[in-house]
Specification:
The structure holds 2 protein chains of 2 kinds. Chain A is α/β, with parallel strands linked by helices. Chain A has helices at residues 2-11, 21-35, 77-80, 98-108, 129-141; strands at 45-46, 51-52, 56-57, 64-72, 85-88, 91-93, 118-123, 146-150, 152-153. The longest helix of chain B has 27 residues, at 132-158. The chains are: A alpha/beta, B alpha/beta. Chains A and B meet through helix 2, strand 3, strand 7, helix 5 and strand 8 of A and helix 1, strand 1 and helix 3 of B.
Chain lengths: 161, 191
Amino acid sequence: MSRFSRKGKSKGVPPISTASLPDIVFMLLFFFMVSTTMKETEVIVKYTLPEATETVKLEKKSLVSYIYVGSPRLQHQALYGTDSKIQLDDSFKNVNDIQDYIASEREKRDEKERPKMTVSLKADEKTKMGLVQEIKTELRKASALKLNYSSKKRVVDSRFN
Amino acid sequence: MARKNRNVPEINQSSLADIAFMLLIFFLVTTTMDVDSGIYRKLPAWVNEDQKPPDINERNVFVVGINLNNELFVEGAYATIPELKDRVKEFIINPLQKDDLSEKETKFIEGLGDYDKSKGVVSLTNDRGTDYGSYIRVQNELVAAFNELRDEFCYAQFGMKFKALSVELQEAVRLAIPTAISEAEPVEIKR
């Protein structure tokens, strides 16, 4: 015991050098700068994705086009009401516009990558299937056949199996 | 001219950390790390409406329907979601060779040899008023049934999971047990 007290009195704790702090922070900064993806579209519909267990990860984000379906956000409800709406790019669209949207998305991609294009359908779980079915029909007509029903991963409770 | 060579005063670097922190916090806030995931399905190619659908024997079709009130019907009778997966699996494998479950057809598949492939197709119908959420729940069970069938087959044949197989074998197993889910246009389902 006496050993400790003697030491403490005689020396005092040496200050930790903070000279390397900026380096550490920069390292973290670069990590986040590289891994970050900015949201390119502002989502103007509200949606809660359904849950599923058999989900597959979307591999290449650059090959994915998104279709959002849900009721408009609060600030748009005065104009568009609360019925389920389709959002393509940044605005509300009709079912008929999907074919044009797919065509324009195709134009943006490399010719080699076009067959790998996937459509991710982000629809609210309360959406009626009539609308979803119409979207699917339009996608088939536009021959965009790879469809991903976006859903949250549900952890399976083994007690119920 | 008259000026003497003076020492350049050193720039204070103590605020460098603060600037870096600010940038770091900005990127921390704006970053979204969520991975997009979902049920992957391939839609059938568009065909003209006057084309007749192929004739399929009644016993090879497993009819699953969801009505306006999100209730599930399997082969015309009320059913629950937990039992759906096992019924689909039984329909496809048909272990007791029952007359009302799917037929089998021996086919040669590259990499697997002769395989008794099931001719069964699951037909999923829904009402226009069905909720998307319950449609996905049913869709999920159907996909799960086919995934489990593949896994069980791979365990019996190769002693490992489907995902652990080589790409060529995966393709072969996919040929042997295709995800045979057909989606019809929505209809008005009674009740």
